[in-house]
């Protein structure tokens, strides 16, 4: 049950991430740094209020006694912000397909990190799934004729965030709260500078625009929280394969909702990816056990 809860949480987080462009389409024309700063500010406020309401106390004494854990949590915040900067830039400039390509590569980094740093062993199913995903990626790289460095950096960075969260033993709420707190001074500095210079959309806009900026916190906290919960309870290689849900949804939204031009190269690439994902999720291990016991297949 615990493993299925983790797997389900991770899968749901990628569904929500894949649907985020639907929220960002209503966002006003706002400075990217202001948007990111408000996400950090309201994330800290929201989590702080939640802890206050449920009477939860952050275990500061325990954190001070575990400097390595505290360091991992504090490092995860800036690492995640780099990913959000790149992700937000793509969404606010109307390049939804670019995000799909970037996160297409993240699962491969996740699986590589799982094998190299966590010593996870891949099952034959996952070997086949990875091979199919690599075939799709190789086809795209060969067709485009160049390495998409932006997508590679974005994918590797998000996979690094996943690796850091895998090594953190605190619950997702505490971890996300500390990540927001460590970035809060910079966020407040940016918000203040934009307000003083008269370039703040939060100050100049109406309440609808302000609520949209404030809402960027819960809109991103929920999938990140589910991802952190799932990462702590599921093999990183499994999370890596599930992550293909996100770029696939982004790809479909870009074409059928935002009207971007379909890319036949990505279409072939995604076909390989989804084939690999289906292979990894099919309960072939149960079929193998059933084959070894003929009586299991008899009617009762």
TrEMBL record:
Transmembrane segment boundaries: 7-27, 39-58, 70-89, 95-118, 125-142, 176-199, 211-229, 241-259, 265-284
Where does it reside? Cell membrane
How does the protein's chain sit in the membrane according to the entry? Multi-pass membrane protein
Which top-rank group of organisms is this from?
Bacteria
InterPro entries per the record?
Answer: EamA_dom, EmrE-like, RarD
Q: Which residues form the EamA domain?
A: 9-141, 152-281
Predominant localisation class? membrane
Ordered alphabetically, the record's keywords are:
Cell membrane, Membrane, Transmembrane, Transmembrane helix, Transport
What GO cellular-component annotations does this UniProt entry give?
A: plasma membrane
* Family, as annotated: Belongs to the EamA transporter family.
Name of this protein: RarD protein
Organism of derivation: Aeromonas hydrophila subsp. hydrophila (strain ATCC 7966 / DSM 30187 / BCRC 13018 / CCUG 14551 / JCM 1027 / KCTC 2358 / NCIMB 9240 / NCTC 8049)
- Gene name, please? rarD-2
């Amino acid at each position: 049950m615990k493993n299925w809860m983790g797997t389900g949480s991770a899968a749901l987080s990628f569904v929500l991430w894949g649907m985020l462009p639907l929220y960002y389409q209503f966002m006003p024309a706002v400075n990217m740094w202001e948007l990111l700063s408000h996400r950090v500010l309201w994330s800290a406020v929201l989590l702080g209020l939640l802890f206050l309401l449920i009477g939860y106390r952050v275990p500061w004494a325990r954190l001070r006694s575990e400097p390595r854990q505290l360091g991992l949590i504090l490092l995860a915040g800036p690492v995640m912000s780099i990913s959000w900067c790149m992700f937000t830039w793509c969404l606010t400039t109307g390049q939804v397909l670019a995000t799909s390509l970037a996160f297409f590569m993240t699962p491969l980094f996740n699986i590589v990190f799982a094998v190299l740093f966590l010593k996870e062993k891949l099952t034959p199913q996952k070997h086949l799934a990875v091979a199919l995903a690599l075939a799709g990626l190789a086809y795209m790289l060969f067709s485009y004729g160049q390495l998409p460095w932006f997508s590679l950096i974005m994918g590797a960075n998000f996979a690094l965030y996943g690796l850091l969260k895998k090594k953190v033993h605190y619950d997702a709420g505490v971890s996300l709260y500390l990540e927001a707190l460590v970035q809060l001074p910079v966020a407040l500095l940016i918000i203040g500078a934009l307000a003083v210079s008269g370039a703040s959309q939060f100050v100049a806009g109406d309440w609808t625009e302000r609520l949209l900026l404030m809402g960027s916190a819960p809109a991103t906290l929920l999938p990140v929280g589910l991802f952190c919960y799932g990462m702590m309870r599921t093999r990183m290689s499994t999370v890596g394969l599930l992550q293909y849900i996100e770029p696939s949804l982004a790809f479909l939204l870009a074409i059928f909702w935002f009207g971007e031009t379909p890319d036949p190269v990505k279409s072939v690439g995604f076909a390989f990816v989804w084939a690999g994902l289906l292979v990894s999720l099919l309960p072939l291990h149960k079929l193998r056990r059933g084959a070894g016991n003929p009586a299991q297949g008899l009617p009762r």
